[in-house]
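tool_call: predict_structure(chain=1)
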Amino acid sequence: MQTGPQSEAQSGPQSGPHLDPQVRDLLALFAGRPALNTLPVDVGRRGFAKSAADLVPVPPGPIGVDRLIAGPGGPVPVRVYRPADAGAQPLPIILFFHGGGWVVGDVQTHDGTARRLSAGANAVVISVDYRLAPEHCFPAAPDDCVAATRWAIDHAAEIGGDASRVIVAGDSAGGNLAAAVALSLRDAGGPALAGQLLIYPVTAHHTAQFGSYSEFASGFGLTRDVMAWFWDLYLGTAMDAQAARSLSPLAAPLLATDLRGLPPALVLTAAVDVLRDEGEAYGVRLREAGVRTEMARCAGMHHGFFSYGGVIDGADRAMAQACAWIGSLPRA
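tool_result:
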């Protein structure tokens, strides 16, 4: 749920043949740090930002331009990236929603990811600084993301983009928001999206009892306890399994009764991740609903790996796969 695995206190990452050596080395850097759910939110946010600044390389490529757009709760900050050598032709537009459990993270913590997406997919990327919990609980975040997506489509020509090639994308909580935007726009009758890129997305409440929650409960970065904390802050209350079954699909997309008519999807999951099984379950549901869906489980990877391009080879491979998939999408 984060750029860096600062989500639990631990003596060191758990070992095993299923954990990539580069991931193990990265996790070792966080040994002994306090878990996010034991810290005040503002302290956790600062630590999350510092981890991103210290450990995520700044890649060459497009430099984002900050601006404000109208949102349902006031102006929404966004950062717009466009490849410098793209020329005058309209490019695909990627709405990128950052991870961080709906509680931490911002456009700066995910600046490297947005740059790599823009350069690799030759696309305009709009990274959205949606409102965070606990100050702004659900549905503030998806409301902001829907508004940003509609803005991008309405202003496509202004930003050098193609309104018929708009993709929503995000990692973890951002993947949850990308799925929510796709559902929201479908249910509203449009506008149509060209695709949804879901990177180890949250699709179910933490009480849903997926096996990966037990298998990777601690020792691999994001923990079961931190996910429960994120959910409680996002919803503004603790919730048991029975109550969670009544959640809006815009909070827990796997609860949607009908996934037909959604845009094509690429679902990337990490093999060593509490969220692995629910992300894959959503991909299966999309396929069963007739949605063109590609799925890939990234071997040896942990939650958050996608942000570490230039550090973890698996992150570079996953980024290349995502960019190639974006390039293959037909217009909406």
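agent: The chain has a mean pLDDT of 94. Proceeding to next step.
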